């Protein structure tokens, strides 16, 4: 009973440690990236819609783009670059230095002790980062529209709020949960399958990052087609 209690506490502490690595450490990078990417996209989109005299649609179009695609994918790419590579390199180093074998000697399952906490932390934190990035993108777009194109923030935010739907929010959440699971699983898999010393660590990290990126893009296309291809226009009521 005491041994099981200790193991459970170790796992919980491990999960909390990984959440701290994935979440606070990636927050600033995610928000800065969302801020500047949204500004660039807003500069291009707002000018064209002003030419078409469709000011009331700018907020809706940008919000739909950020919510359905840009925020989930960009946040996932950031997590791959920062956390996926970290997971792969850390586990690869443990593998080549025989620390994984030491866990077996201690009768500790490496999957339960090393992989599961990383999968849980990435799957939980990525949706939160996604919604924070979404809020940052909308706010920065409203700011740019006001300062550069004199578009009233009330008009922008009203258009934005009308285009939001609970269904889209849930689907965006589901996307990031799936992305977080894929990123953590692939990173841990390539890390634990490392061979060949320091060179193998570098190769495993690179392979994990590249494979995760390609997987996210492919899965994003599949999910977007399944989730959104049959929907009516979100701006027809505006």
UniProtKB/TrEMBL annotation:
It is a multi-pass membrane protein. The keyword ATP-binding does not apply. The keyword Mitochondrion does not apply. Keywords: Membrane, Plastid, Transmembrane, Transmembrane helix, Transport. The chain crosses the membrane at residues 21-43, 104-126, 132-151, 172-192, 204-228. One of its GO terms (cellular component) is ATP-binding cassette (ABC) transporter complex. Pfam families: MlaE. InterPro entries: ABC_MlaE_roteobac (IPR003453), Permease_MalE (IPR030802). It is found in: Membrane. One of its GO terms (molecular function) is phospholipid transporter activity. Belongs to the MlaE permease family. This is ABC transporter permease. It comes from Leiomenia cribrosa. The lineage of its organism: Eukaryota, Rhodophyta, Florideophyceae, Rhodymeniophycidae, Gigartinales.
